[in-house]
Amino acid sequence: MFSEQRQFPLLGFTTMIPVEVVLAAGYTPLDLNNLFISDIDSISLVEDAEKGGFPRSCCAWIKGIYALLANGRPSLPLSLFVAVTEGDCSNARVLKEIIELHMGIPSYLFAFPQDRSPEAVRAEVVRFANFLGTTIDAAETVRYNLRQIRKVLEEIDDLSWRYPGLVPGSENHLLLVSASDFAGDVPSFTVRVQKYLALLEQKLATGQWRKCRKPLAYLGVPPIYNLYNFIEEKGAIVVFNEMQREFAMLGGHTDLAEQYRAYSYPYSAEYRFSKAIAEIRRRGVVGIIHYVQSFCHRQIEDIILRRMLREAGLDLPILTLEGDKPQKELDGRQKTRLEAFIEMV
Length: 345
Known about the structure:
By secondary structure, the protein is α/β, with parallel strands linked by helices. The protein is built from 16 helices and eight strands.
């Protein structure tokens, strides 16, 4: 997902941060989650971290990020490591300390204010900008310039549910999740998504796409294994990737504070699922897959999701899938559960 031939300096991060500030400060953003999961040896990276002392009961994403950097990937060294603590994994705080001590990489803690007040969010963004040596005004200019690429991504996402089957779930997932760092190269990524949108429009005009009558919603963090291809082999398709869409920051926003207040991932489960339920209604899905990562506090949010769906009067089948380590392919149990669920919907 990321080309190592891009400009210096590299700034790596554990989950979505105000990328506009990163770009305004002259850094190349690098989402270390994307780099980890796309690595040819992602499974070995988790094992390397466990050999290095990380416990089995620690999230594989944390272990993967550590092993990436410990093993010299990317080959270009990071100039700065940003860990998101408040609003994300508490393990990221300790990971920051380990990376500073073991690798000597300067680090920074970013915290999303839990009250979501415009003043608190803006203050955190300004603090981050000051640390990187830029200004909020410069970051706002970057936000304005990114409107085009976000608009194209929104059009692609819109086509995915208006014409189920036109956009493979895996493609929707990959493009949206890549918007966290724009694959390290905003101009090239812009061209990539524009070409993809043109291809979709051509398929739509010629009717050369496979229509699907079982549109599904995927809720939860991006999966650590590929389940999209199997879903489509069984006659269904994901037309709503919840967190990936949040990472892409779609929709118009008046400023950075409003944009990162609207971003649901770091805030309460109630706020997050209220946004997701609105999209589920709009997209007319017939079933929900809720993915949870092993050893993550978000597993418990499944209780809140099911209650909110009942209270919203959405009597939709829901399948909760748990993932631990990267897998080259789904195992037998995962396939059986997915196949039975798709047959039911």
